[in-house]
Amino acid sequence: MLRVATYNVRGLKDDRKALVRVIRALRPDVLCLQEAPRLPGWRRERRALVRAAGLSVAAGGRVGGTAVLTAPAVRLLHGRGHRLRWFPGLEWRSTALAVVEKTVEKDRERYAVCSAHLDLLAGARLRHAAQIVALLERAAGEFGAAPVLAGDLNEIPGAPVWRLLGGRYTDCFAAVRGPAPRIGADEDESRAGATFPARDPRVRIDAIFAGPGLTVVSYGGAAVPAEDLTAASDHRPVVAEIARTPSARA
């Protein structure tokens, strides 16, 4: 079983001690970051964060601010950052992708995990999502790994990117909680799983998707005081426990 978390950390502009406490509470095997540091000194800032969190950098560079971090419990087989198609006038986006192996009851399970931060513009979001799926599935096929995609989609469930990803993968939140809220649902139901803004979450724009051959065991957030969540970033993180079915194990 693999614990995968995703977290938009807003360029480390907020309370870094609270951020480290949140990350440690997530207990991730793999952590997908969005808005990792990109300004001068970004390498130093990223190293300080991962050292404090007890993790290592597996993939990701400066452009696009995406990264994948790993815990000592997993072995890194492959890590790389990919620049996505550039659209004039828009931010240059990227994805970070790592293939990891974890030993579970003498079985070696391989996962290809991708961190994504999609654009604010709908057309660019959809094209980038399709490009990311192709990169992820190519790496998964090359290493005999199960694909997992996590990140900040900048879009709410039911919109085009969610439909694209949902047609190929399992939305981990929906797998645990059940169908999406009905039209006309009350506010508590419609906000279930919301991740943004951290102070008063209203929309679910951060998600984890599991590929074929994977079972979602659990899904949730960080067990920390609410003040840490609001101090650490403007997003809330999510974490899923994902297991390979016996027939899909490497």
Automatic annotation (TrEMBL):
Alphabetical list of InterPro entries matching this protein: Endo/exonu/phosph_ase_sf, Endo/exonuclease/phosphatase, TDP2-like
An annotated Gene Ontology molecular function: metal ion binding
Keyword Cell cycle: no
Cofactor: Mg(2+); Mn(2+)
Domain of life: Bacteria
PANTHER family xrefs: TRAF AND TNF RECEPTOR-ASSOCIATED PROTEIN, TYROSYL-DNA PHOSPHODIESTERASE 2
Name of the protein described by the UniProt record: Metal-dependent hydrolase
